Every structure is written in C-alpha cells, then in structure tokens.
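S., here's the first fold you wanted:
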Amino acid sequence: MPEARIGLLAVVDAAAEADAQGLGWLTDAEQRRLQAITAPARRASFLAGHWQARRQAGQWLGLAPDRIEWATDAQGRPRLCLAGEALPLHLSLSHSGDWLALVLAEVPVGIDLELPRRARDWEALARFAFAPEECRRVQAAPDEAARAAVFHRLWALKEAQAKRSGAGLGARAARTVCAHPAQAADAEAWSWSCGDGALALAAAPGVCWTLEGAGPGMGVAAGWRYAPAMAAPIQD
C-alpha cells in the first residue's frame, strides 16, 4: 500500500464552484437534505463541502467527481463511494463562517475549524468542558485574546479527535482526553492558528500531509498527541 497522505483544503466561498456544476451530482439522499436546509449560508456550506470532497477525491484517485457518491459509515462519519463501494479514503469536513476545511486520508481522520464570532467567558467555558490541566492553560494566558486562542486550539483538537474516532464529543468525554505538544515525528494531530481561532486535524502518527489553500491568517503547524487527562505532564 502506498504511504498514507492527507490532503487538506481550506477555501472561501467554495460553493461558487459547486454551483457552477449544477446539482446533478448530488445523491437522492443529499437532495433531500439540501431541500430541508433553508438558510442560504448553510446551503452554500453544504454544497461547498460535498462538492469539494468529490473534487479532491477525484483528483487523488483519477475519477470524475460526479461519479463519486456520498455516504456515511456505521459511526456516522462521511464516506465517499464508487458504484456503492467505499473508496480507500477517509473524509472529514468542518465549516465556520465563510470557510470550509476538508481532509482526506488513507487512515481515519478528523478535522475541526473554529472561527469565533463573539467574545465569550473562555475560563467559564473551559471549566465546563476541559480537564483541570487544560483549564490552567487557559487561565495562564496573559490576556483575553490569548485565552481565546488557547481555548479554541484545545477545543479544535478535541473535536478533531472525536471526529476521527466517530465517538462524538460531549462535555463529559471532552474532559477525559487532553492534547499535549509533540515532535513532528511523533504527532498524531496538528493545529494551526487561524484568524482569531484555530484549525486542527487528527490522524495517526507518521502520516504525511499536504496543505492546499490556506485559511485566514493561518500560522505554522504544531504537533500534538492525545492522552487521558492528567496521564501526561503539562507542557505549556
């Protein structure tokens, strides 16, 4: 099997490309879901994600995008298929504002994009959803902007891990797993600053990935590994 790799895409207004293709590429199930969405921005995000997933997978595998079908696996994660058979790629998407983040890989993968729209009490939110060691990281940040950045980075890493596993993320589950800084060779997750928020993806140690496109003000990738809360030393 060739070495696993990840294609990551972050774009603005990708729905414009999807609209140019018409809607004939949507499955019957997707058509029904689209008809149930009334908010224009949400419809645009739906079309952007479903078309971009097909386009990226098609480029990877040498297939016409409109031949690729959208489905879900037993854990509810999206999968791409050809003639009813799952393609050898795992998929995860995340939308925030006008931006779409998408990742494909030959191993289970999860991605989360968090672009805050308003100020919140980040310490209170951390106490509700984070382990004590993570709360201390938020509290130790020097100002409001830094606390928001730490909160969104940690939350995006949790969401990415939950999507990778297919288990979902509730407040109780969120408090049981922490991300800790890791060297690139050992990392199973990566994060980027993105505007006032964060982008994170979770895959597997040793996976190679490439970045196509860039979100607003994306910084340099940082590597992470997950561990049970309090099971690893805190590294701020």
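And the second, which I think is the more interesting of the pair:
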Amino acid sequence: MVDMTQEAFDEAVAEALDLIPVELTEQMDNVVVLVEDEPTAEQLEGSEDEDLLGIYEGTPLTERDSWWAAGSLPDRITIFRGPTLRLCESAEEVVEEVAITVVHEVAHHFGIDDARLHDLGWS
C-alpha cells in the first residue's frame, strides 16, 4: 500500500484530466469528477471488480436525446483513493493507475464500453 496524502492524490487526478485532449474535454457535458476514499456498497454491486478504482455513473453522450438535459443531474465520474493506494506499490504507479482510470471512466462518458477499452489497452 502506498502512503499518499489526499492532496497528492487529488493532484494526480487533476493531472490525469489534463492529459485528455482539449478537443475532448470541451465536448464533455454535464459531468463532474469526484474523488472518494472507498466505493459504496451500491457502487460495488454492479462491478465485477472487488477493488473498484473508478466508476462512471450517468448517461453516455451517445445515449442522450433532446429530452435528456431537462432537469438531469450531472453524470458522475468517481475515482477511489483507497483501492488505488492498496493496489499500487509506489507513488509513480499511483499516478499511472489514476491516469488509466480517469481515461477509462471519461471514455464511458463518451459511450465507449469495457470491451472496446480492453481492446484499446485502457482496461
């Protein structure tokens, strides 16, 4: 397990978001990125992974229609600090894993599924 402050982990998430091309971040719509210590039981329910590093909760851009935005809460991308720190063996590995997780969850916002992300090497 890596010992990393909340601030340093938050910075790793911010840096990962900065890696996403501006052309894509400008197209992200009604989505927030959060950092939480651990996933909730409800978030783990839908996951095949007991060490869930991140989750996208919302309606992908590819599935939205003209009625979607009226009163919709923002989609949520949540990155989980505890599972990430337990998985990694160094601060550098945490930064790398956070970047992979952020890109993976942002891709879900754009409608890319796990199978395609796996094919692309982002799983």
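Why I say that: Residues 6-120 form a domain with the Zincin-like fold (CATH 3.30.2010.20). The longest strand covers residues 31-36.

Talk tomorrow,
H.
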